[in-house]
Structure formats: C-alpha cells, structure tokens
Specification:
Helix content of chain A: 55-70%
Strand order of the largest sheet of chain A: 1-2
Number of strands of chain A: 2
Strand content of chain A: 5-15%
Order of helices and strands of chain A: HHHHEEHH
Largest interface: A-B, 62 and 63 residues
Number of helices of chain A: 6
Oligomer: homodimer
Mean pLDDT of chain A: 91
Chain lengths: ~150, ~150
DNA sequence: TATTGTTATACTCTATAACTATA
DNA sequence: TATAGTTATAGAGTATAACAATA
C-alpha cells in the first residue's frame, strides 16, 4: 500500500478501506453502500419524503427514485402516502429493513469498541477528544470550501 | 447530519466527507477520484504496468484500461512500451500529470497540518499514536474478514 | 407559479467473459 | 500453456432536463 505520510493520508486510507469493505460485506445481501446509506438515514431520522432524502444524502431527487425503487423491490422500504401532501410519499422501513439497520448499529458499536481497545488506555481520552476535534475541523474546512 | 455515536460512526462520516468533497474538488479539472487514485499510485511508486496498477487499486485489469484511456485523453499519463515485455505497457506520468500529483501532495500536507492544529497541543502525541493504532487495527479487521 | 416525483438520456466506475498478441 | 491488455456486454450510481400531478 501507499505510505501513510500525514494525517490526511491516514484518513484517505481509512476512507478507502471503509468504502471498499463495507461494499463487499453488503453485496451478499443484495445491498450497496448507496442503498444502505439511505436505510441508515431513515433508521436515524425516521420516515421522510424523497426530497428530504435527497437533501440528507446530498444527491439529486432522481437518484433517490432509483435507490428507493431498488429497496422497495428488495422489500426493505415502502412508499407510504404522505398524510397531507398528495404529491409526496413517505419512505418507511419495513420489518426486514429495520432488522438490517438494527444489526448494523450493533455491529458498529462492536467494531468501535474493538478499534478503541487498540488505542493504549492512557491515550484513549486524548484520542477521542482529538478525533472529535478533527471531525469538526474537517466539517469546517468543507463548509468553507477550503478542501484541496 | 447523523449523530456521531461511536468511533465507527465518526470514521464513516470522515470517509463520506472525504469521498464526496475530493470528488467535487477534482471535477473542474475533468478528474474523478478513481482517476486521481491511479495518478497517485504512480506518483508514489513510479511507472508500472496496468496489471500492477490493477493490483494496487484492487480493481480488474479491464477497469484500469478505461481509467488509463481517459487519462491519456486528458494528457496526464502516457503508455510507454515495456523495456523487456512487448505485451505490456508502462503507464507514466506526463509533466501535466506530475504537476497535479505534486500539487495534491502539497495540499495534503497543508490540510494535515491544519487538521492536527485543531487537536489540543497536549493531546497531539496521544492522538497520533491512537490514530496509527486504529488504522492498524482496521487493516487487521479487514484482513481477518471481520468487517461487519 | 412552485414543488414532488418520474420519464428520458448520458457518463463513469465496476465486473465477467471471450479474444489477440506475446512469453 | 500462461500472461498483458483489449473488445463486448451488463449493472449500479450519478447528473441534467423535461414533464405530470398537486400545492
């Protein structure tokens, strides 16, 4: 692999690993990262319209149509009529969809514990503070458009 | 955005930010993350055959053909004859390709410095140790196939 | 008139399988 | 026979633009 020279390189490395290997782990279930991400948003924020999903995923409404089509086909979400707006639908997790996201949440917690246990106990608090600070700073850089 | 509950969630968040916003920053130059990644591999490891590139990028040789086609078209790489194997080509950065990767390397260093400066000085050493440990552990998890 | 979702079209990344030229 | 790269084909994610139904 490439040398990890800077924190930036390590982050890129992590991003690549996560991207590739979550995709690999989802594939057997007929899922993809884009579809799982959509499930994940609903898992956290509850049922919502496709417009809201498009905003949450930073993707076009047309794209959401395709993702929801596939997830409906797999029986993981349904399109429910919106209570007050007849143009809109509410995308909702089915029981099967809920099982998948709940299992993912448990997995995340378990992997997070595993990863943290790799950090020397004396460094752990500082590491967690540092990670939070870096994530915040990254957010700010992106918001300012100062990303390279 | 979604709540960052665990280290895992923070890592996923970082991966998503990096993925989306590097893509956005590359687009004006007619580049994509896949093509930039290929340039980056050659920048670090020097000219190599498409087979070696396929292995380095964890992608099929067919895929590399398409990426190299696009980069040749943009004038960022050339296909040079292999010195000893007439079946193979050596993919090599042009001067324009080199300018791009060198600029990216400078940007990475600058952003890395910026991100680290967000970590309280007293936490910095522990944070860097922790990050390295987490990256190693992540590698190990992936190698063991224990990724969720 | 503005918004929600969809149809139409196109580009990129990715994969598998079959083929050509060379080793 | 095996390897390097390409042609052929296909699926997924993404985008823009035009259109229907509803607000």
């Amino acid at each position: 692999m490439l040398p990890d020279v800077t924190v930036f390189d390590q982050i890129l490395r992590i991003a690549a690993l996560v991207e590739r290997d979550t995709a690999r782990s989802l594939a057997p279930a007929g899922l993809t990262t884009a579809r799982m991400h959509l499930l994940w948003v609903i898992h956290h924020a509850g049922p919502m319209t496709q417009q809201k999903l498009a905003a949450a995923l930073a993707v076009t409404p047309r794209n959401v149509t395709g993702l929801v089509d596939a997830l409906v086909e797999s029986g993981l979400v349904t399109r429910e009529p919106h209570p007050t707006d007849r143009r809109a639908v509410e995308v909702t997790l089915t029981a099967a969809g809920n099982r998948i996201t709940s299992a993912a949440a448990r997995d995340h917690a378990s992997v997070a514990e595993d990863l943290l246990s790799a950090v020397p106990a004396a460094d752990r608090a500082a590491f967690e503070r540092g990670l939070a600070a870096v994530v915040d700073r990254l957010d700010a850089l992106v918001a300012e458009g100062r990303w390279p």
